[in-house]
Amino acid sequence: MTDAPGTRQARYFVAALGYFTRVPIPRSIALDRADLAGAARYFPLVGALVGAAGALVYLIALSVFPPSVAVLLSMAATLLATGALHEDGLADCCDGFGGGPTREDALRIMRDPRLGAFGAIGLMIALALKWQTLAALPAATVAWTMVGAHAASRGLAVSFMATHDYAREQGKAQAVAQRMPLRSLAVALALGLPWALLPDWRAGALGLVAASALRFALGRYFTRRLGGYTGDCLGFAQQSFELAFYLCALAWTSF
Q: For the chain, which ranges sit under pLDDT 50?
């Protein structure tokens, strides 16, 4: 028996929540490969929820601690919520691209669970930049900036699934790494990009321009180095886009 459209979309969202976060999914909800394949369109919406969780922790902590501590606690909350899934992709890509001279070497290194020097350095710099950038933003804008960056960065990251090939014949992301139909891409972008325009649409627009340019550059690099993207590449891209939104927001406030 075929699920009703509304029920099917709800299953896709639950699959996205279970795949991209540590939120426990009831065992009574039996998800299959088709649910995982359709889950990617709700990746940005899950990002908005993760960003909202971080924003809530920030606002609560800000009533007790200075902004730098509140930001760090909010980052810890989002890392716990996602299980550092995207940060792990960033570190793996830094190791693979930094230490793998050939496509095969890069893919092999990226699959290695051990953290290398390039991965450790890349992860440390990315987390430090997030921390310092958010701590330097006006407190009144930080919460919405978090939500917008988390959602929009995931919308741009998942767009690679509509425009690029999956680089591995098999991989842990294979279940969701199906070629995304344009209709699903439109849903993902609609659920992700508008959040970037809050609270200041001008700063958000600057972030969208910068992140879109970065997406173009990363897409060309992934294709040249790997012949496509991997699950780690999506995590690397999401982290890069999120940081781009934060940096643009800070740059705008400095004008």
A: 1
